[in-house]
Amino acid sequence: QVQLVESGGGLVQAGGSLRLSCAASGLIFRINAMGWYRQAPGKQRELVAHIDPGDSTKYAMSVKGRFTISRDNAKNTVYLQMNSLKPEDTAVYYCNANPIASAINYWGKGTLVTVSS
Fold first, then answer.
1. Rounded Cα distance, 98 and 45, in Å
2. What is the DSSP letter of 43?
3. CA-to-CA distance for 47 and 37, rounded, in angstroms?
4. 35-72 pLDDT, tens per residue?
5. Which residues contact 22 (CB under 8 A, 6 or more apart)?
6. Which of 39, 24, 71, 105 is nearest to 48 (CA)?
7. Under 8 Å between Cβ of 94 and 75
């Protein structure tokens, strides 16, 4: 059974930093593309950052230069370092796993990030 467990969310002031973690189990982590998505109230879920099995990354334009995604295959964990946070970054952040060459997507339950102005 695949499980993705996010942690690290919380309340932070604008300009602050948070580091999200997503611990994966039940899958072969190193062959999965991993992503962080977010969903703000009343909005659709959107891609924030993505890292493929070869460590290539991509970011939403709104977070480029402020957020960094990374992975540790030995720990089956993907991270999202978030710096210079803005109130508009407030959302529930979800971890996603997509096995290479597969249409399957696994999701975590999310962690809430709240940025106060």
1. 16
2. S
3. 4
4. 999 999 999 999 999 999 999 999 999 999 999 999 99
5. 4, 5, 6, 7, 34, 36, 77, 78, 79, 80, 95, 108
6. 39
7. no
| Closest CA relative to residue 105, chosen from 47, 57, 60, 63 | 47
Tokens of 84: 């210079």
Q: Which residues contact 74 (CB under 8 A, 6 or more apart)?
A: none
The pair of three-digit structure tokens given for residue 88, joined into one six-digit string: 């508009």
Question: Angle CA(50)–CA(54)–CA(57) in degrees, nearest 5?
Answer: 30
Amino acid letter for position 21: S
- The model's pLDDT over 72-91, given as tens digits with 9 standing for 90+, comes to 999 999 999 999 999 999 99
For the stretch 34-71, what's the b/e string if a residue is b when 16 or more beta carbons lie within 10 angstroms of its beta carbon? Answer: bbbbbeeeeeeeeebbbbebeeeeebeeebeeebbbeb
* Structure token digits, residue 12: 């932070």
